[in-house]
């Protein structure tokens, strides 16, 4: 990751001379927007949250910007990415359940306007580097068809960091590195993905004119499994006995250095003074893969705070309240309207957004316009055995997995997922040792939980029995949201997705023409049958 560490050098020998910073001139109205999304970074896994892993770049950028300490995302990859790019809850895109699997004929619905499309309308150059994970079964689903001028990265994002191969199941394996709409075989040189993506970012910034606005979406693969990192990043973490935690620490150290290099590139090529850098994790950490959410409860894939409360901050010379902490409620859907407004774009009245413009909340310390968050309603997740309409006071079936936040209150129903607290000492042995975990044994029939998150951010005191009226109020709000939900999109596997049938590459396999031909054929056959039947009848 160190290839961009220019330090105090003012030019590269034989390279592009540095452009002048625009700070001395009149400020441009449309800012450069750099959105950096980390993958599976735990809430504790940043220096300023007390981690033993060193993150000097993230610490410095956050300290000089605004730390978001009441910031929420979704518990998994696809849901967070879909909500970022559309400004809509999962129940309004049909992606309520799980993630988009590589073999599914599914993608972010094409009738959803995306953030890069809206930014392009007002003159932005839009580039994506990194992990997509919003579907690719047909060409119309690809990043370059959803608003990005260029795309370099993976469609899936959990493959090998060096070879860029991904196996979905035994024998179903393929190459997963793309440049725009084609497999990037030319880049298959064994470079670690964090380094490779940072190189690409530097190239984009060097080639673009900083006098014109740019939207750069950098979705790093790190620190998602498989746990791999270049050897030199293990140097400071030999003392960590747990091998997964040690590898994870090395990966995060490399990511931190990469973000330093991105920041240096922004300064070198003249973007920084008119830029807004947003940093976010896509979900909570996975303790079994080295991540830590301590002292929050739960992990990635759950609706406990450890799965959905994220590391996040904004760094920008354009901020009014630099060096502050924002404790107002902020959700990943809020970036869509916030960034479009900052870019002087228009949000169509017919787009039913779930996000809010929260720039004044972040920059000036004002109250957030957001008072609630629908964390999700998943009607096809495994139902809680003891859930019922009766347990939900006839308002809601508590067998259904759902979670909602209204002001200080958070309600969970159904099966919210793995609920342990995993303290740092759990990583001291050969694997995260569950004997070190703190547990609460709930009564077997429990399907409703209520917490005051402001007073109890670690979800240790369930208040559902003490405040039944609050439970009813939040159940009604869930019911209201559910009335606006669209059907779940979660189709079965399609055998045509096998990379062996597509040149060894994960990529679009669905052809509309074939479907039309088949339907036309079937229509023709049915017409012939009707004619024969008529003759027989005559």
From TrEMBL:
In the UniProt record, what gene is named as encoding this protein?
Arsj
Keywords in alphabetical order: Calcium, Glycoprotein, Hydrolase, Metal-binding
The protein here is known as ARSJ Arylsulfatase
Instruction: List all Basic residues biased stretches.
Output: 524-538
- One Pfam assignment: Sulfatase
Q: Which family does it belong to?
A: Belongs to the sulfatase family.
* Cofactor needs: Ca(2+)
Q: Where is this region: Disordered?
A: 1-28, 487-538
């Amino acid at each position: 990751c160190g290839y961009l560490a220019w330090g105090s050098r003012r030019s590269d020998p034989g390279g592009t001379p540095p452009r002048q910073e625009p700070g001395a001139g009149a400020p441009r109205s449309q800012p450069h927007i750099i959105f950096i999304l980390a993958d599976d970074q735990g809430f504790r896994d940043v220096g300023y949250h007390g981690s033993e892993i060193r993150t000097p770049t993230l610490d410095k950028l956050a300290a000089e910007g605004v730390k978001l300490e009441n910031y929420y995302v979704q518990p998994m990859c696809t849901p967070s990415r879909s909500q970022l790019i559309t400004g809509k809850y999962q129940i309004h895109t049909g992606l309520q359940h799980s993630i988009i699997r590589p073999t599914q004929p599914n993608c972010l619905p094409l009738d959803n306007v995306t953030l890069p499309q809206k930014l392009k309308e007002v003159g932005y150059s839009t580039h994506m580097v990194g992990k997509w994970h919003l579907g690719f079964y047909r060409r119309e689903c690809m990043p370059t068809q959803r608003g990005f001028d260029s795309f370099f990265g993976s469609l899936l994002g959990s493959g090998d960091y060096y070879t860029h191969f991904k196996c979905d199941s035994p024998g179903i394996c393929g190459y997963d590195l793309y440049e725009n709409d084609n497999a990037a075989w030319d880049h298959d040189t064994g470079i670690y993905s964090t380094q490779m993506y940072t190189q690409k970012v530097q190239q984009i910034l060097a080639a673009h004119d900083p006098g014109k606005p740019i939207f750069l979406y950098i979705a790093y693969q790190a620190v998602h499994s498989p746990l791999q990192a270049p050897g030199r990043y293990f140097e400071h973490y030999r003392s960590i006995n747990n091998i997964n935690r040690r590898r994870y620490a090395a990966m995060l150290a490399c990511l931190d250095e990469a973000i330093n290099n991105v920041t240096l590139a922004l300064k070198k090529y003249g973007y920084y003074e008119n830029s807004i850098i947003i940093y976010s994790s896509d979900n909570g950490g996975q303790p079994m893969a080295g991540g830590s959410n301590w002292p929050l409860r739960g992990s990635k894939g759950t609706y406990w705070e450890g799965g959905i409360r994220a590391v996040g901050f904004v760094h920008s010379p354009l901020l009014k309240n630099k060096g502050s902490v924002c404790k107002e409620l902020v959700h990943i859907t809020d970036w869509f309207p916030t960034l479009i407004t900052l870019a002087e774009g228009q949000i169509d009245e017919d787009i039913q957004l779930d996000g809010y413009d929260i720039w004044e909340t972040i920059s000036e310390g004002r109250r957030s316009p957001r008072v609630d968050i629908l964390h999700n309603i998943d009607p096809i997740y495994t139902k809680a055995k003891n859930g019922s309409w009766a347990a939900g006071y006839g308002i809601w079936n508590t067998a259904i997995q759902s979670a909602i936040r209204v002001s200080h209150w958070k309600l969970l129903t159904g099966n919210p997922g793995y609920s342990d607290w995993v303290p740092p000492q759990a990583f001291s042995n050969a694997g995260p040792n569950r004997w070190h975990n703190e547990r609460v044994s709930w009564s077997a029939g429990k399907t409703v939980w209520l917490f005051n998150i402001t007073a109890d951010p670690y979800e240790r005191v369930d208040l559902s029995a003490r405040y039944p009226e609050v439970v009813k109020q939040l159940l009604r709000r869930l019911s209201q949201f559910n009335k606006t939900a669209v059907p779940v999109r979660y189709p079965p596997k399609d055998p045509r997705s096998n990379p062996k049938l597509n040149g060894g590459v994960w990529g679009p396999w669905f052809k509309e023409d074939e479907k039309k031909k088949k339907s036309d054929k079937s229509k023709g056959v049915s017409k012939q049958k009707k004619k024969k039947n008529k003759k027989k009848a005559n």
